[in-house]
Amino acid sequence: MKKQDYIRIENISKQYGQLTAVDDVSLSINEGELFGLMGSSGCGKSTLLQMLAGLDTPTKGRVFIDDQDITDIEPHLRPVNMMFQSYALFPHMSVRQNIAFGLQQDKLSRAEVDKRVDEMLEIVRMQDYQHFKPHSLSGGQKQRTALARSLAKRPKLLLLDEPMGALDKNLRERMQLEVVSILEDLGVTCLIVTHDQSEAMTMSERIGIMDKGEIIQIGTPNEVYENPNCCFSAKFLGSVNILQGTVAQEPTEFTLIDVPEWNNQVRINYGLSAPEGLPVWVAVRPEKMSLSLEHPGNGNNVAKGQVYDIAYMGSHSIYHVLLESGKKIIANVYHSDRYISEPITWDDHVHVYFEATSAVVLQG
């Protein structure tokens, strides 16, 4: 049975003079879990990663792995390994020698080193390239080699720092699934640090979002995307329309919000624990915004606007609409039909609408 709270970070902080890079962060990761940590540059995610690896020392707080306090243990003695964005492969060593390096440093017997290297080569499907030098490898092959080297020592925790950053888009998407499959098969506990939302949502079982040294929300990709707990989370993970308003009426079963930017009241299909007049923000994802040349009828939150830009994305188009209030809204329209008899185009006057169940109300 996998252990809960296998990795425990307790009230970790890191200060550099007057600057607080990480501010009283506590986090638990389960055994075998792939946990994604997201945030913009300077939010503290890389500093937190370095403290887990032992490359930086916390100003306060403790780090535990499998109930062992590793806070003061030297980096090379920790049951932790890191795979860097650059892969950091030794250019003069072959794939096999790169994978074997850490094991040899740990003074394992030659037979044990050979056994583990053979095992890793098979797992990452690099047997045919084991005698190649890094300069002869593709980006994906370099990544597999770096991953094999990181896993060869059988760490209790694997740290991935922007693991797909050096790959092109198509290869990155393919390698995300491959790496997840390998890690899940081996049951490795992994912390993935990235600013790429697609990468985090594809590779992680849970996501933590950091801002200004704090973790502001934790949840599954679906939970964080569909139910952000603040405007920052909503804006950071995907595109979103944010409408500012005030609570107008708060019955138990639904809420009415005055939204001047919408030139109308907005109905939300659940009650809020908030008094009338409280400032709030209504968040609606672009894929939940719809457009129509005709009024869509009752039961929707509707505003009028004019299309001022369209971006064709292949599977869908992104429509930019200027509402009568002057507020700009984006809506994703998916191309389910090859040909549409009356497509919406530039300068069209349209109705923008969303259902009462499609929005999330945020209070900060």
Protein architecture, described:
The chain has eight helices and 20 strands. By secondary structure, it is α+β, with helices and mostly antiparallel strands. The protein folds into two domains: 229 residues, Rossmann fold; 123 residues, Nucleic acid-binding proteins (OB fold (Dihydrolipoamide Acetyltransferase, E2P)). The longest helix has 18 residues. The model has no long low-confidence stretch (mean pLDDT 92).
Structural descriptors:
alpha+beta; 6-stranded mixed beta sheet; Rossmann fold; 8 helices; 364 residues; 5-stranded antiparallel beta sheet; 20 strands; OB fold (Dihydrolipoamide Acetyltransferase, E2P)
Question: How is this fold's topology laid out?
Answer:
Blueprint: E1 7-16, E2 19-29, E3 34-38, H1 45-53, E4 60-65, E5 68-69, E6 80-83, H2 95-105, H3 110-123, H4 139-152, E7 157-161, H5 169-186, E8 190-194, H6 197-203, E9 206-211, E10 214-219, H7 221-226, H8 231-236, E11 241-249, E12 255-259, E13 264-268, E14 279-284, E15 290-292, E16 300-312, E17 316-323, E18 328-334, E19 349-355, E20 359-362
Parallel strand pairs: 3-8, 3-9, 6-7, 7-8
Antiparallel strand pairs: 1-2, 1-4, 4-5, 9-10, 11-12, 11-14, 12-13, 14-20, 15-19, 16-17, 16-19, 17-18
Describe this structure in a few short sentences.
Helix content is 23%, strand content 35%. The protein has 364 residues and is an alpha+beta fold.
